[in-house]
Amino acid sequence: MTPAVTDETTLLAVLAPFAAAVAAPFLTKWFKHNAAWPLAVVPALIFLHFAGFVAPVSEGQSFVAAVAWAPSYGVNFSIYVDGLSTLFALLISGIGTFIILYAGGYLKGHPQQGRFFSFLFLFMGAMLGLVLGNNLISLFIFWELTSITSFLLIGFDHLRAASRRAAIQALVVTGGGGLILLAGFIVIISATGEIEMSVLLASPDIIKDTGLYVPIFILVLGGAFTKSAQFPFHFWLPNAMEAPTPVSAFLHSATMVKAGVYLLMRMHPLLGDTALWTTVLPLFGGVTLLVGTILAVRQTDLKLMLAYTTVASLGLLVMLTGTSHEKALEGAVLYLLAHSLFKGALFMVAGTIDHEAGTRDIRYLGGLRSAMPITFGAACLAGLSMAGLPPFIGFIAKEVLYYGTWGWPEFGLLITIVAVVGNSLMLVIAAAVAIKPFFGPAVDTPKHAHEGPVLLFAGPVVLSVLGFILAVIPHTTGVLFIGPTLSSLIGSFTEIDLHLWPTKINAPLILSLITIGTGIFLFTQLDKLRVFVARTLTAIGWGPDKGFDQAISGIVSLSSAITRVVQGGKMQTYMALTFLAAGAAVLVPGYVGGGWPAMPKMPIYTFYEWSIFLIAVLGLISVLVAKTRLTAIVSLGIQGFAVALIFLLFGAPDLAFTQLMVETLSVVILALVMTRLNLSPRDHRNGVSTLITGAISVSVGLGLGLTLMAITQQPFDRRLSDFFTEYSNSIAYGRNIVNVILVDFRGIDTLGEIAVVALAGLCVLALIRVHTKKTLPEDEGIDQSETGAKKEAV
Fold first, then answer.
1. What does the alpha-carbon distance between residue 398 and residue 394 come to, in Å, rounded to a whole number?
2. How far is it, in rounded angstroms, from Cα 88 to Cα 50?
3. Does residue 373 sit within a domain?
4. Three-class DSSP labels, 536-594
5. Is the separation of the CB atoms in 417 and 408 below 8 Å?
6. Which residues form the NADH-Ubiquinone oxidoreductase (complex I) chain 5 N-terminal domain (predicted)?
7. Each residue of 626-673: pLDDT tens digit?
């Protein structure tokens, strides 16, 4: 079905958060402690706008809208609205509304609250642009913008070293993955000739038929795995908990960490259901699921426990997406929705506990249910959904995903075992977060614990209750949200019928009972389990997180070593490296590509033409054998004058005049500068140095000569010459074509060149006006050899 064209209001909805980011600091200043309420209107209106797409999208429709951005490159700011993008847009804007409110309460009175709101809105806009992006290049721009804005949010408390490290780590990992993804997009565009996602999805086999499926698959996975923290790139996500809790709640529930999962789901019709896809994704997703849950058990910080379970949940989603089995994909979509709701609620609960009790460590929390009853209720509801217990959306998701893994004909038994182990440990963390801080005897906390304001508990209450409501109306949930999203994943419209309660005893129900029983048992042994995991990890030693530090340290050391070589403070080294690079640039391509020119026939020259060549050769010999710098400078000018005479003899008087002026001024300026520096005999060089510099000089001269010969042997293309001949007089009113080109057709370039020459002249003037005797302390008893060295340095 061809996508319908929606109006430009949808484009404005994507851009609205960026406008709100500009206004946020001013509104915060005007409304002071109540700025969150008017600011939350923006994501709420965006949510209502995309809610209007739910009904038509549920019937199988899709929509596109576009405006030209860089039309000469085929880049448009275009969006594609279907089931998958609608679900993500609703989660981003809906949860984002409560995150804005929550941030208003959490950072109340913070001097940089306005700046924080701006960063949040930029982050929100970047994610909306990503999940709605239709043009591959514009999608990549928003993809990288999420990395930049998350860097700003994670490093918000920039005075803390831990925050700065976490922000840099997230930027390096996700930004580097983004560059890999860009390479993948470029290959897709080059191989298919298409740049719009909607066009690619209309021909699902277009990438598989190009012969470049494997490199495209690897490059796309490089971007998705780094963004969604798949093993071994999982380490950056828990460290991002250094950000304020509103960032953690938004980042883990509906935004950046699910961007990689979104990309894999979006690309499933194009890349999925192949042997490579159904092997690599379940493997890495399953490992990430187990690593995340095991590392979560070790933690005692509420945010870190939730962060590692997010890593595990992302692994579960990647594993299910990798099966390409329709029922497993349905379970992935359900779990995506359930996870967004319960994880957003639980992160805000953890932040509220920290805000009102002064700590997030579960070892020093207890008995908070009477002091924080509303927060306790939200934690219980969200925790039950995370544990996969009825009657919550998390239970339905677990049932469906078990149905999908058990029915997968490839490695169904293996990934079912992995899913059961992971979900059992997920139940342990859900119980720990929802039970331990609120039950047991009251504990003296750093702050007197009490219920937070409405801004802090509104989000957890609404999101946790939604997890219950969506479960008790499963048919409506399936028709409006799950079915359309699943249709986007499989590439064709499909309808599903969800049920809250199993209609019979089957494998998924038995697996759920095993998961619940195992999880309850492990929860009773949580302290012992934590000690065991900690000892095991200590015995293993350092992991990817410390490996990242070592990699960065190695890069810094390597760059420092290279800098000491190429930027050692010696002009000779700088010049040698510069000309070495120039020689390689002109010689290597000819050697590799075999593009050497044919040896031309020697023309017949007159005696005065030979005399000019002889003068040039004599000037070259004079430069080489000159005893002083002044002699070398004057001898060097002979070369330029000889070239000017050649221009004059072969019918280019304007070029000859320019060359004469340049050479005259060069010799005069160099002589004036050198008189202010040192005209003593030239530096002595040993044989090795002379050989190296001579070889570099010959390579540059030979390379440039061969390049010019190769160019002149190509057929002459007169199109540009004819253009200037035809239009120089009629358009620019000038008969001297060279002058017209310089002044009119290349006027801006010429202006830039004049500016460079003028700046160089000013620098020369500054050198000439240096009074060496006044700046060097020669009359203070300093050794004259040292003074000479200082003069040489000047």
1. 6
2. 10
3. yes
4. HHHHHCCCHHHHHHHHHHHHHHHHHHHHHHHCCCCHHHHHHHHHHHHHHHHHHHHHHHC
5. no
6. 72-117
7. 777 777 777 878 878 888 888 888 777 877 887 888 878 777 777 776
Residues in contact with 514: Cβ distance below 8 Å, sequence separation at least 6, in sequence order: 420
Contact 295, 545 (CB under 8 A): no
Q: What are phi and psi of 409, to 5 degrees?
A: -75, -15
* Residue in the structure block whose two tokens are 């003296």: 444
In a domain, 468, yes or no: yes
Tens-digit pLDDT profile for residues 742-755: 788 877 888 888 88
Report in angstroms the alpha-carbon separations of 776 from 115, 505, 764, 788: 51, 95, 20, 10
- What domain range is 469 assigned to? 322-509
Classify residue 500: in a domain, yes or no: yes
Taking a C-beta distance cutoff of 8 angstroms, is the pair 196, 78 a contact? yes
Of 355, 338, 195, 216, give the one whose Cα is nearest residue 274. 216
What is the rounded distance in angstroms from the CA atom of residue 242 to the CA atom of residue 221?
27
pTM of the prediction?
A: 0.81
Q: Alpha-carbon distance 738 to 740, whole Å? A: 5
Residue 73 CB burial class (10 angstroms; 0-12, 13-18, ≥19): exposed
- Assess contact for 97 and 458: CB atoms under 8 A: no
Q: Is residue 722 part of a domain?
A: no
Q: What is the CA radius of gyration of the chain?
A: 35
Q: How many CB atoms lie within 10 A of CB 643?
A: 18
Cis geometry, peptide bond prior to residue 391 (ω within 30 degrees of 0): yes
Give CA separation, 761 vs 9, 472, 753, 765, in Å.
55, 80, 12, 6
Helices then strands, counting H and E runs in the chain, come out as 34, 3
Number of domains in the chain: 1
Please give the sequence-ordered ranges of beta strands (E in DSSP) within 256-324, or none if there are none.
none
